């Protein structure tokens, strides 16, 4: 059974895409991170203008036009059919240590505004350096560790200000 992806463009045009459809695209990544797409013998320049991976929403520029694109996976459909909304409650208040380890470096300070996926600190565990990234946009309210501290699993490292 082939997986269908539900795609909505500009909030009004909806269609299904399969992996076979995506694989059939004649698209090439260019040196600057944009893409070159051939469609019906027509050359198109494509670039990602804005991405929200949590909501699976993208602003895609094709030649000179920008399109708002939402992509729903089969898992999103299953979650929705169960009455849930994917990513709806992503309001993390604290960052806890995922494992015991040593704080090698704290990369942020109290009051600093961070974006989702910004690096917050580096935790060494089992001789590996693990960069702990921000799970959301927010402002750092407190930092309860310093460089050189050892922490146990689930120890609160950073707290975000409430929105």
UniProtKB/TrEMBL annotation:
PROSITE patterns with a match to the protein in the record: BIOTIN (PS00188), BIOTINYL_LIPOYL (PS50968)
Name used for this protein in its record: Biotin carboxyl carrier protein of methylmalonyl-CoA decarboxylase
Source organism (scientific name): Croceitalea dokdonensis DOKDO 023
Keyword Disulfide bond (UniProt): no
InterPro entries, alphabetized: Biotin_BS, Biotin_Carboxyl_Carrier/Decarb, Biotin_lipoyl, Single_hybrid_motif
Every Lipoyl-binding domain range: 83-161
Name of a matching Pfam family: Biotin_lipoyl
Statement: the UniProt record of this protein carries the keyword Nucleus: no
Xref: SUPFAM superfamilies: Single hybrid motif
Keywords of the record: Biotin
């Amino acid at each position: 059974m082939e997986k269908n992806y539900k795609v909505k463009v500009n909030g009004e045009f909806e269609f299904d895409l399969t992996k076979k459809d995506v694989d059939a695209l004649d698209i090439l990544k260019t040196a600057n991170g944009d893409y070159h797409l051939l469609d019906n013998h027509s050359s198109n320049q494509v670039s990602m203008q804005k991405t929200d991976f949590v909501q699976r929403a993208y602003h895609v520029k094709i030649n000179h036009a920008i399109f708002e694109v939402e992509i729903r996976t089969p898992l999103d459909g299953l979650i929705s059919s169960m009455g849930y909304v994917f990513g709806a409650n992503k309001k993390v208040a604290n960052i806890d240590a995922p494992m015991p380890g040593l704080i090698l470096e704290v990369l942020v300070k109290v009051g600093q505004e961070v974006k989702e996926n910004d690096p917050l600190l580096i935790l060494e565990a089992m001789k590996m350096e693990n960069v702990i990234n921000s799970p959301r946009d927010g402002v750092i309210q407190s930092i309860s560790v310093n460089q050189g501290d050892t922490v146990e699993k689930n120890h609160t490292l950073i707290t975000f200000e409430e929105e």
